[in-house]
């Protein structure tokens, strides 16, 4: 402690406990006055609460001197002071709740808005469970701390100050004894906090592991069973829950010591007062009222002070939560969505010298390509050749490392995302439908779309007949509380959703992988017939789509080559599908 | 379909079920005998010490009044003594209550997880993954607060009240009656607002559940939201739910704040009554000033347990709902097949025989009267449209389900009676949806084959033509695959799934659309490497594409759950059935 830097750091550590309150206050917008009012009012409640032991002491003195008139006076005063204290306590409690809930509300809104603006890459670097826990548990940890700070921590600190004052009035020595205990209490708190920090961190890590192991095990239940590794899985999970348990026990042992050390410290001081006060009272033959008041003040302070230990834990959790929340709130990986609505650009697509890299590795380099409006282009290539990355550049889900992509003659990096994505619709392979009806899902882009438009799109996507076979047709609910659609059905709903938005460029990124070949052909046929004028990019490694294409491109070794003679190349591809026993010749 | 939170909560709280579940929980807690014994002793000792110190204080004060130094020192030390006892007993209480709580929670999690390994595969079709995870992690966690703090608090509160009332009656009967006047007032008030508290509480829970659900959906659906520019609409919807939660919480806060304020007034009333009545008793010579001081402290101490009881109720409610769901998972019926079968199999030497096998999902038939015989070493192709029953066929063969009627015989033994574990050791599946664990590709394989070395895995990948598929990854087979394998393409995931099955080197290989996401060039490479590997092995290949048909000796076509054709490739192509039609469509020859 004699080292000034060390001391400063220690003081900093103590003040840091309150950091979540400071952080939270930034999200109260125009309601910061509520926070200040609550803090001011809690000064009154703290004072009135401590006034009661003093009044009790006076009452006892009255009894001791058999002065019943003053006894009644003090009894009534106790009632009045309590009523006043209770009245103000209401504002402190309600105000703390109000502030903390306002913070939670504002913070969730903030996180949500930021999430909506994040780039795709962000969602690929974060697990969904992690994002979810940031927006719920981490926000709640801060909220919890803010609430407990305004209705427990700050009042306790005020009460400590008032205790010093009141005890001083009763007897300066009482006050001195109390003051001596305060650094001891703070030191206990600080040591406790430092010792348990690492354990809490580990607890959170193990909790995360538990979640991930469960998720994998449940999603992979067939593989686990298929390879009969159930027992290994049980062992693995049990060892994680065991580590979790061990950490909790370590915390409990620390808590058992330090948390109970605080009330013990206070009671040692209370005993000192009792003995000292008793001694002087006997010597001076004075009233016991002051002594009773002083001891009572200590017994009132025991509970709030021992609660301080838990508040330190709350602060720890809140600060860890804030760190994780800040990852979402940072401006990194933000998209710029703004721009005029409704505008659509033409479907001419030009790609000039575009390269794309992931990490240090180039997926493709220097690609040049022109696709005039209305053309249907098939993009093939080996597994993981970068087909999907390539088309994801067009709606700017990914950004190219270099080069320019333009639509209708305009560089897409200069077009607002809302315009661009109105022009380009991309249907990915894996589809998540939002909860709601099938209609809600198809009309996602525009809720004012007519039923005819929806039915037409559903017909093109070959999902119309299926929807009609459902009792509630387009009003059938899907998702968490509705029916579960198969992968192929989800893909078809997603295609309908894209078609109904009437994009100028439609990208099907392996969007029919779970649909059977016949249906796939039907869909592509109808898309070709009914969406003339729309530029269509089909990513696939199957030959069946190729016959609908005006042009076929192949991604290979980081560059795009055009296959000019489709028929001869088709032959090359289908060679892979032919049979040893000479199936080709059998075709009618 | 999982029911809504409110439905479940109402169900648990309104019926006898809550009490029953609670009793089961208590039994489970008490089964940790040492910890719970320590806990109970510690709690009771703490409570007794806590109720004795006001008496010591009163007697010490009496000593002061009577100018008796000895009394002051004796009772003053006793005062501190009781606190020191409390320090030790509270320490034991903290440790043992965490012990009991965390042991119980660990046990619940482990048992739930274990049962998740035993339930039939069909269970996962009914229950959502997120639901299961949240039960085993979150719901178990909510118990922590309840078990660690609330339950010991109740025991402590009850002991405190009993001990202190006894002491008070012993000290002065009449004054005790006066002191207890506020108790009916306090408990009456607490009970009367419970209904409102509960309603408010339910609303806060419901609204926060809605927020979590909405968030989860928005995160998983972020692609669609961005694609269609509906970020603002989604934000408005979220804001609505967020606001509902805010309002619900404020309403609950208003009530609890009023409660807190009124409690304080009731407490003061109690103290005033004791002071005035105490003065009368003092005058009558029944008590001393010191005892009166003790009474004042006792009245103050009554209020803590009672106000804590009101918090307990909320914690009790959410814990009971949580634990009911966890017990629900623990009690789910385990896989009947696994339980019934006890015949161990070590090898496969004869044949697989489907004898009149039918299978129903609920009421709808997926397979009808299937009769098939597959001899050891045979290579069978199962073809048919989506929904024809191909995957159901493989699910039955993998014993994920048992047939609704009919039997499957392995070497003449009914599959139902065979021990699932030993049977599955003979098989390697390549499932339709390839599933990945965390870690690198190599680590992933090692999850299944802990004894495999890096070199061996790389060799195998090269041997089966799978290696080139990973060449574009930064660190090849040592690349991290990310959550659910998302750093990889579908095709790469399938390749891992295939590699896994090949390394197992099984007697029977069951492949369900193994290469649907792999490009024809790579597929060709895989197929050509397979010929030698498959020698002597039995292959069941399920597909609605024809790319791998060259590997099979015999093709069986399914349609609407029935076997419609069986024969060699040329036989089926020459007959005018499903197979021929499918072939024509895919090769555009005459469709």
Q: What structural class do the secondary elements of chain A suggest?
A: alpha/beta
Rg of chain B over CA atoms, rounded to whole Å, is 35 Å
Q: Which architecture of the largest domain in chain B does the CATH hierarchy give at level 2?
A: Up-down Bundle
Report the CATH topology name of the largest domain in chain B: ABC transporter transmembrane region fold
| Helical proportion of chain B, percent range | 55-70%
Largest sheet of chain B: 6 strands, mixed
- The radius of gyration of chain A is 35 Å
Provide the residue-averaged pLDDT of chain B: 82
The number of distinct structural domains of chain B comes to: 2
Q: Which class of the largest domain in chain A in CATH terms?
A: Mainly Alpha
Order of helices and strands of chain B: HHHHHHHHHHHHEEEHEEHEHHHEHEEEHH
Descriptive notes:
The complex is a heterodimer of chains A (588) and B (591). Chain A has helices at residues 4-16, 19-25, 32-64, 68-117, 120-125, 128-170, 172-219, 221-226, 230-284, 289-329, 387-392, 417-423, 438-442, 451-460, 464-469, 487-500, 517-530, 566-574, and strands at residues 349-358, 361-371, 376-381, 402-407, 410-411, 424-427, 436-437, 477-478, 505-509, 535-539, 551-556, 559-563. Chain A has 588 residues and is of the alpha/beta class. Chain A folds into two domains: 4-201 and 251-329, ABC transporter type 1, transmembrane domain (ABC transporter transmembrane region fold); 349-578, Rossmann fold (3-Layer(aba) Sandwich), CATH 3.40.50.300. A six-stranded mixed beta sheet of chain A has the order 6-9-10-3-11-12. A four-stranded antiparallel beta sheet of chain A has the order 2-1-4-5, with no helix packed on it. With 591 residues, chain B is of the alpha/beta class. Chain B folds into two domains: 5-334, ABC transporter transmembrane region fold; 351-552, P-loop containing nucleotide triphosphate hydrolases (Rossmann fold), CATH 3.40.50. In chain B, the strands form two sheets. A six-stranded mixed beta sheet of chain B has the order 6-7-8-3-9-10, with helices on both faces. A four-stranded antiparallel beta sheet of chain B has the order 2-1-4-5, covered by helices on one side. In chain B, helix 18 links the parallel strand 7 (508-512) and strand 8. Chains A and B meet through helix 3, helix 4, helix 5, helix 6 and helix 7 of A and helix 3, helix 4, helix 6, helix 8 and helix 9 of B.
């Amino acid at each position: 402690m004699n080292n000034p830097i060390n001391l400063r750091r220690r003081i900093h550590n103590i003040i840091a406990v309150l950091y979540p309150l400071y952080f939270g206050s930034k999200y109260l917008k125009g309601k910061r006055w509520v926070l200040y009012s609550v803090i001011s009012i809690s000064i009154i409640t703290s004072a009135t609460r401590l006034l009661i032991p003093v009044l009790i002491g006076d009452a006892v003195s009255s009894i001791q001197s058999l002065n019943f008139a003053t006894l009644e006076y003090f009894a009534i005063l106790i009632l009045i002071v309590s009523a006043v204290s209770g009245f103000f306590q209401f504002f402190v409690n309600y105000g703390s709740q109000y502030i903390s809930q306002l913070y939670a509300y504002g913070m969730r809104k903030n996180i949500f808005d930021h999430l909506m603006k994040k780039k795709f890459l962000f969602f690929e670097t974060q697990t969904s469970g992690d994002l979810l826990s940031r927006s719920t548990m981490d926000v709640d940890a801060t909220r919890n701390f803010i609430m407990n700070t305004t209705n427990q921590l700050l009042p306790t600190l005020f009460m400590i100050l008032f205790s010093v004052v009141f005890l001083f009035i009763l007897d300066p020595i009482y006050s001195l004894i109390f003051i001596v205990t305060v650094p001891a209490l703070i030191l206990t708190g600080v040591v406790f906090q430092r010792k348990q920090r690492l354990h809490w961190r580990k607890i959170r890590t193990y909790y995360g592991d538990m979640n991930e192991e469960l998720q994998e095990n449940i999603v992979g239940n067939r593989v686990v069973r298929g390879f009969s590794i159930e027992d290994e899985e049980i062992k693995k999970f049990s060892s994680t829950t065991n580590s979790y348990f061990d950490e909790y026990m370590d915390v409990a042992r620390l808590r058992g010591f330090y948390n109970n050390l605080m009330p013990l410290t206070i009671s040692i001081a209370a005993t000192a007062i009792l003995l000292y006060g008793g001694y002087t009272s006997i010597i001076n033959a004075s009233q016991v009222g002051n002594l009773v008041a002083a001891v009572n003040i200590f017994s009132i302070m025991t509970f709030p002070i021992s609660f301080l230990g838990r508040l330190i834990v709350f602060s720890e959790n809140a600060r860890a939560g804030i760190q994780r929340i800040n990852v979402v709130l940072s401006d990194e990986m933000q998209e710029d969505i703004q721009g005029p609505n409704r505008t659509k650009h033409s479907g001419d697509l030009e790609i000039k010298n575009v390269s794309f890299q992931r990490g240090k590795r180039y997926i493709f380099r220097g690609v040049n390509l022109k696709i005039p409006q209305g053309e249907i282009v098939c993009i093939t290539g080996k597994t993981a050749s970068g087909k999907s990355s390539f088309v994801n550049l067009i709606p700017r889900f990914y950004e190219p490392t270099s080069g320019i992509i333009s639509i209708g003659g305009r560089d897409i990096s200069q077009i607002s995302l809302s315009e661009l994505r109105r022009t380009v619709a991309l249907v990915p392979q894996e589809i998540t439908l939002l909860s709601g009806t099938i209609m809600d899902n198809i009309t996602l882009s525009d809720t004012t779309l007519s039923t005819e438009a929806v039915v037409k799109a559903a017909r093109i996507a070959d999902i119309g007949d299926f929807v009609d076979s459902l009792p509630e047709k387009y009003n059938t609910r899907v998702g968490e509380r509705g029916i579960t659609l198969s992968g192929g059905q989800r893909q078809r709903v997603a295609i309908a959703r894209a078609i109904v938005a009437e994009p100028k460029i439609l990208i099907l990124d392996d969007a029919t992988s779970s649909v059977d070949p016949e249906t796939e052909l039907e869909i592509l046929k109808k898309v070709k017939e009914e969406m003339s004028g729309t530029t269509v990019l089909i990513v696939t490694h199957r030959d069946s789509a190729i016959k609908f294409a005006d042009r076929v491109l192949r991604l290979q070794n980081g560059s795009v080559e055009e296959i000019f003679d489709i028929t001869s190349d088709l032959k090359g591809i289908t060679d892979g599908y032919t049979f040893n026993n000479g199936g080709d010749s059998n075709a009618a | 379909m999982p029911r809504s939170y409110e439905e479940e909560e109402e169900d648990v709280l309104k019926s006898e079920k809550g009490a029953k579940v609670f009793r089961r929980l208590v039994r489970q807690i008490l089964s940790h005998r040492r910890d719970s014994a320590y806990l109970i002793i510690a709690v009771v000792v703490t409570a007794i010490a806590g109720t004795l110190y006001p008496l010591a204080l009163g007697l010490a004060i009496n000593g002061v009044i009577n100018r008796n130094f000895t009394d002051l020192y004796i009772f003053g030390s006793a005062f501190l003594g009781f606190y020191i006892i409390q320090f030790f007993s509270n320490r034991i209480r903290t440790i043992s209550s965490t012990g009991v709580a965390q042991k119980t929670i660990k046990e619940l999690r482990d048992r739930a997880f274990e049962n998740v390994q035993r339930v039939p595969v069909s269970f996962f079709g009914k229950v959502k993954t997120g639901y299961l995870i949240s039960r085993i992690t979150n719901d178990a966690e909510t118990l922590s607060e309840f078990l660690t703090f609330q339950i010991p608090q109740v025991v402590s509160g009850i002991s405190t009240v009993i001990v202190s009332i006894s002491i008070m009656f012993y000290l002065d009967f009449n004054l005790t009656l006066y002191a207890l006047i506020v108790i009916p007032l306090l408990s009456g008030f607490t009970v009367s607002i419970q209904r409102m508290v509960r309603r408010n509480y339910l609303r806060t829970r419901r609204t926060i559940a809605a927020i979590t659900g909405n968030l989860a959906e928005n995160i998983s659906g972020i692609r669609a939201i961005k694609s269609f520019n509906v970020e603002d609409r989604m934000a408005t919807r979220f804001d609505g739910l967020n606001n509902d939660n805010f309002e619900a919480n404020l309403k609950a806060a208003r009530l609890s704040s009023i409660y807190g304020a009124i409690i304080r007034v009731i407490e003061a009333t109690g103290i005033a009554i004791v002071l005035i009545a105490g003065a009368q008793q003092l005058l009558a010579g029944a008590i001393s000033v010191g005892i009166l001081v003790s009474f004042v402290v006792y009245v103050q101490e009554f209020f803590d347990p009672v106000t804590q009881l009101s918090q307990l109720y909320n914690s009790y409610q959410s814990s009971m709902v949580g634990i009911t769901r966890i017990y629900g998972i623990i009690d789910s019926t385990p896989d009947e097949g696994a339980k019934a079968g006890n015949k161990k199999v070590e090898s496969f030497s004869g044949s697989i025989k489907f004898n009149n096998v039918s299978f129903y999902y609920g009421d709808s038939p997926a397979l009808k009267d299937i009769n098939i015989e597959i001899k050891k070493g045979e290579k069978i192709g199962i073809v048919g449209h989506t929904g024809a029953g191909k995957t159901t066929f493989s699910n039955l063969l993998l014993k994920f389900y048992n047939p609704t009627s009919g039997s499957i015989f392995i070497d003449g033994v009914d599959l139902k009676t065979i021990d699932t574990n030993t049977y599955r050791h003979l098989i390697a599946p390549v499932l339709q949806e390839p599933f990945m664990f965390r870690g690198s590709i190599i680590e992933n394989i090692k999850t299944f084959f802990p004894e495999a070395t890096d070199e061996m895995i790389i060799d195998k990948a090269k041997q089966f033509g799978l290696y080139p598929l990973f060449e574009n990854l930064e660190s090849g087979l040592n690349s991290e695959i990310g959550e659910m394998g998302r750093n990889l393409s579908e095709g790469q995931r399938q390749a891992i799934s295939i590699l896994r099955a090949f390394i197992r080197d099984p007697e029977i290989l069951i492949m369900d659309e193994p290469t649907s996401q792999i490009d024809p060039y790579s597929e060709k490479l895989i197929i050509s490497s397979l010929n030698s590997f498959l020698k002597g092995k039995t292959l069941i290949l399920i597909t609605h594409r024809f790319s791998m048909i060259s590997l099979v000796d015999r093709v069986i076509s399914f349609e609407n759950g029935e076997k419609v054709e069986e024969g060699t490739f040329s036989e089926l192509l020459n007959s005018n059935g499903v197979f021929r039609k499918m072939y024509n469509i895919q090769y555009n020859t005459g469709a």
